[in-house]
Amino acid sequence: MTDEWGRGRVVLRSGAGAGATRIAGRAVLRVALRMRRCRGASPFVHPLERERERERERQEVEEMNSEGADRDDETTSRVEVTSNGHAEKVSSSRFTSLLASKDRDYLLSPTGSQVTVSDLEGHVVGLYFSANWYSPCRNFNCVLSEAYEQLKTNQSKFEVVFVSADEDLSAFNSYHSSMPWLAIPFSDLESKKALSRRFDVEGIPCLVILQPDGNKEEEILRNGVELIHRYGVEAFPFTRERLEELEREEKEKHENQTFTSLLSSHDRDFLLGHHPVTGQVPVASLVGKTLGLFFSAQWCLPGMKFTPKLVSIYQKIKHAISERPGAEDFEIVYVSSDRDRASFDSYFALIPWLALPFGDPKIRTLARHFDVQDIPCLVVLGPDGKTVTKHGRSLINLYQEQAYPFTEARLESLHRQMDEEAKGLPRSELHAGHHHELTLVSDSTGGGPFICCDCDEQGAGWAYLCVDCGYEVHPKCVRAAGGDSTVGP
Ligand SMILES: [Zn+2]
Ligand SMILES: [Zn+2]
Fold first, then answer.
1. Beta strands in 258-394 (DSSP E)
2. How far is the CA of 459 from the centre of ligand 1 (A)?
């Protein structure tokens, strides 16, 4: 199952009156839903702000694309010339042809001093397309800065060149001064647009990685952001061979993962529990249980909102297990991104499950191992320690305690059950909350994950949909127009 919340059907077709108003609500809701995931250390951003940002970003990229054409041809042809056999010359002029212009042979340091482009020769260079008005860019800055500083400390030949999509010079100056690397001068619109077009930059943040002597298209990596998130400095020098090696290592790690390898370290073989005396639970005691790793933090509003729901479902699952002797047990471990111990302590007091100690190095290792980029996130492990799903949170939202133990087999049986129940439902309904007739849809007939316009909860599988305006509700949420009776389970 893929996590496609927010990318489902945003239907903004015709529609008027009450329907249109509700749909607008639905569209905003989808954006809000996307927002409910916190990215890295991001503060909560209002959905409308995010929407404005997206719009600005689209315009910016469109402008870049439409205006960069002339310069682009020039750049491309230069690259082609250099790829026609003058290997040595290619190497020494590679970055100059890309990053300098006819009146400029330098880049700017964060303090505003000039650094000659030819100083980059021999370096792996990351072209960093970013803008200060977009919070994912600001967040990625922190991640990239950390990797950059580490690579510099190791004396690795790596450099980053910021290609700004800021709104004005003062925004650029203040943003660039917060970065440790170089930049194309803000005033050189031509070069910035040409680069954006040359590397098909469709969204920001974007990190394009160029090899010092490689000029083949397949050696250019456009997913630098993902690679840095996933592997950090380990990704250096960003060659195909290095990435294949990392992928192999990662696959091996996943195949061999156990509760102990994931949760213990050389000086700690326990987790924090709520036992009044010991307060500790041995990691070894988890073997044989289905285990949820809950990545969250107290500063993450969606995480705080999801927590009471997860507590209630955790208790229901535990209760059901207690009534079935011999059933595999369930446990959750809180993997905290809290910023201080006091926040961690107050959050831990709210939850009935275990936790990794505050600030434990394993927290970071786990986030990377499971490629957790958005919190809250619930990764579910089977009794043998292998990953069952990384979409525990969506599954809880969809099926509540019914989702347990989150396996493919369980989901298939839930879907069959839903199909069975849908057989008894009318093909169409008039719902009190909407002025058009609603049609029963499933995944295979135009349905898919949605947000119910009536109860605002997630839904999947069967639903009643207005094909004109995208209004969509759970079968259980349909209220007959003119009465308050419900249909469905
Ligand atoms: Zn509903
Ligand atoms: Zn409608």
1. 270-272, 280-282, 290-296, 330-336, 354-355, 374-375, 377-381, 387-389
2. 7
